[in-house]
Amino acid sequence: MIFSADIEDWQQSVYDFDRAVSNRVVRNTSRLLDILDEHDVIGTFFIQGMVAEKFPNLVRSIADAGHELACHSHSHRMLYNLTEAQFRTELRRSMAALEDISGSKVIGFRAPTFSVRDDILDWYCAALREEGVVYDSSIMIATVRSCYGFTDDGILRRIAERGLDSYPMSVSRVLGKNIPVLGGGYFRIYPYWLTQWLARKLDQNTSIFYMHPYELDTNEYREVSQLVDIPTKMAVHQFARRGSVEGKLRKLLLDYPFSSFRDTYYPA
Fold first, then answer.
1. What are the NodB homology domain coordinates in residue numbering (predicted)?
2. DSSP letter at 241?
3. Which residues contact residue 103 at a Cβ distance below 8 angstroms, ignoring those fewer than 6 apart?
4. Each residue's pLDDT tens digit, 62-100
5. Which of 80, 109, 110, 136 is within CB 3.0–4.6 Å of 46 for a Cys-Cys bond?
6. What is the pLDDT of residue 108?
7. How far is CA 83 from CA 14, 17, 57, 133, in A?
8. DSSP letter at 148?
9. Which long-range contacts (CB under 8 A, 24 or more apart) does 172-175 make?
10. Rounded to whole angstroms, how far apart are CA atoms 226 and 106?
C-alpha cells in the first residue's frame, strides 16, 4: 500500500488562501514523522510550496527520514480557478523550492483538493511534463463532492495519452457506486472497522492511503476559533472526529504494508 501525506497548513490551505502559513504545520508534520518512524514506514509527502518556502528545515527533515518529496502546488488554490499561466507560475515556484532545498529531483504531483478537470487537462499535463513530473496522484473516480471526482476511469487513459503515469485514489465498489476509502476526511469519519471492510478487496500493494498532518491536531479548532470566525458547517466538516485519527492511523500502520510511490514504481 502507498502511504502519502499532503503537507499543508489548514488555516491557509482550507480556511483562507491569503492567510500566512502557520507553524502548526511544522508541529503536526513532525508528529506524523515520529509515528511513521515508530512503525518503520516510508511514504510520499506531497508538500505545498508555501510550506517549503517558509519552513525549509521541515522539508529537509522529511527527506532526511527517507521519505519521497513530491509537489502539492504552491498556494493550494483549486486548479480550475487558475489560468494556465497562473498554474505554470505556481508549479515552477513550488517545484524549484522543493528541489533547491532537497537537492533531489521531484517527479510526483498531487493537485490541491484533487481539482483536475477535463477542460484543463491539456495544459495541466503539459505543464507537469515540462517541469519533469512523471506521475500524478490527483484523481478520484467517485463523484462524492462537487469540487472533484470523475464518473469513470476514462480519465486515466486521457492522462496516459498526455504522457503521464496516473495513480488514482482508492475507492471501493458498494451497491454499484464507488465509495472513497483510505484517506482524508473519509478515514477520519469512518470507524476503523468500516475502513477495513471497504478495503478488504483492494490490492494491498498498490492501494493509496492519504492524509493531512493537521488531522492529528485536536487543539486547532479550539485555538484558531478564538482568533477567527469558523462557520459551523466548516467546523463540523473539518474537525469532526480528529481525536480518532491517531489511534486509527497506528492500527492501519500495523495492519498493512506501506511504501512510497518512488520505491514502489520508480526504484533507483
1. 11-268
2. T
3. none
4. 999 999 999 999 999 999 999 999 999 999 999 999 999
5. 110
6. 98
7. 20, 16, 31, 19
8. B
9. 172/198, 172/199, 172/201, 172/202, 174/198
10. 38
- pLDDT, tens digit (0-9, with 9 covering 90-100), for 8-64: 999 989 988 999 999 999 999 999 999 999 999 999 999 999 999 999 999 999 999
* CA 256, 252, 179, 153 torsion-angle sign: negative
Report d(CA 212, CA 25) in Å as an integer.
Answer: 10
Q: Which residues contact 70 (CB under 8 A, 6 or more apart)?
A: 4, 44, 45, 46, 47, 106, 107, 108, 109, 110, 137, 261
Query: Cα–Cα distance between 257 and 177 in angstroms, integer?
Result: 27
CA 227 to CA 160: how far, in whole Å? 45
Distance of alpha carbon 154 from the chain centroid: 22
Q: Would you state the pLDDT for residue 196?
A: 95
Distance of CA 111 to the CA centre of its chain: 8
d(CA 26, CA 44): 17
Residue 50 backbone dihedrals phi, psi, to 5 degrees: -60, -35
Q: What would the grid cell of residue 252 be?
A: 492501519
